[in-house]
């Protein structure tokens, strides 16, 4: 019998990956294309939706050619995506009415202030504290500031959504305007208990409900695609997950209390909390993990705006490193007694503070602080932010986690991973395969298409493990210093 394959697209903040998995669930080939980061003088961050679509089609074609297989051997497709990036397009033509507003963009901060009195009602319905980070404010900004959007809404011709819904609309033969529960739960206008768009919140944010996508189970058939006639026949797109949710699924965190951290431009720390939502009073978000096989799973999540991006900043803006591969060695060579901390509040602080007015700072610098010590502080701030969320999630669930599963490019940094284990005080497990978000979407699609059996998919052997070696006193000393630095960032003028 001819081998069969699952194609996955991981559409992330920095670029688009095409991934091909064989009928055992093993990664066969990968192709990547970066896309432009469109940033203006106000610090607004945008993506060109047509560029993302073109790159999605191209990486899919490249990865199939790279694997040397017949396109007809691909039987299904999954999509994982940057979740809070927000899009608007013409329902008739499929053309965007503006660039996508990226999750990092805080342009809607003033608009959020208008809704401050509704904050608790918003959090109770959606699990999310008011913030310009989420699509509700971004889509509201589009409705107020892009005349074509409001004109199309008046004619019933406007589509609003996240990047998954944009790709589904343009890739599928059916022009499907759909999304899944994981992505919908991040919009801040979806009721995560009633499992529907909240019409009162949509009205408050001036978002037309009829412009939003149909919300489906994550393992639904969302439509069929030929990838622009590259495939000989249409295949189902039958697995869609927000990128962090895809990583949670790919990490086999299927039981309550299991958690993972995804290290990317920013980071998501996510813990499975089961089939009933729990709500945190301390800055954690409650979202839907996924809807699969007719059941909903929920998660605690904390989002960090800048983690891996700190390494890019040290390279591109500060010019103190020539590439990420240098950072582990430089941190090792730094003075271990140096007390420099860096708080990367470039666009405010995310979880658990949700303070968009916070500004970044270095603190603890002395005359002997040099390039190595600055790089060390830049690496360690990633681990400190994640450790804060791991500790808080354990407190909220009433049980300290025993293992932190990690994924993403920065997990290849040995110094960072050892420090992450030390500063959390628990075991850290990093898979040798880094494409966890796309893998999760591929596995969801493969299970839905009947190619995969869940019990035969997840390989727990392919991990590197890091065990904590730091004393409790040293850990407390370092964490106390970090929290003092964060306190200064929160009050910094």
What does this 3D model show about the protein?
This protein has helices at 49-67, 109-114, 119-126, 135-145, 147-154, 163-171, 181-184, 199-204, 243-250, 308-316, 327-333, 371-397, 414-424, 436-448, 472-491, and strands at residues 5-11, 15-21, 27-34, 38-39, 45-47, 74-81, 86-90, 100-101, 158-162, 178-180, 190-191, 196-197, 214-216, 224-225, 235-242, 259-263, 267-274, 285-292, 295-304, 341-343, 361-363, 403-407, 427-431, 463-466. By secondary structure, the protein is α+β, with helices and mostly antiparallel strands. It has a domain at 5-242: ATPase, nucleotide binding domain (Nucleotidyltransferase, domain 5, 2-Layer Sandwich). Strands 18-19-17-16-22-23-24 form a seven-stranded mixed β-sheet, with helices on both faces. Strand 2 and strand 3 (27-34) form a beta hairpin. Helix 11 crosses helix 12 and helix 12 (371-397) packs across helix 13 (414-424). The longest helix is centred in the last third of the chain and has 27 residues, at 371-397. The model has no long low-confidence stretch (mean pLDDT 94).
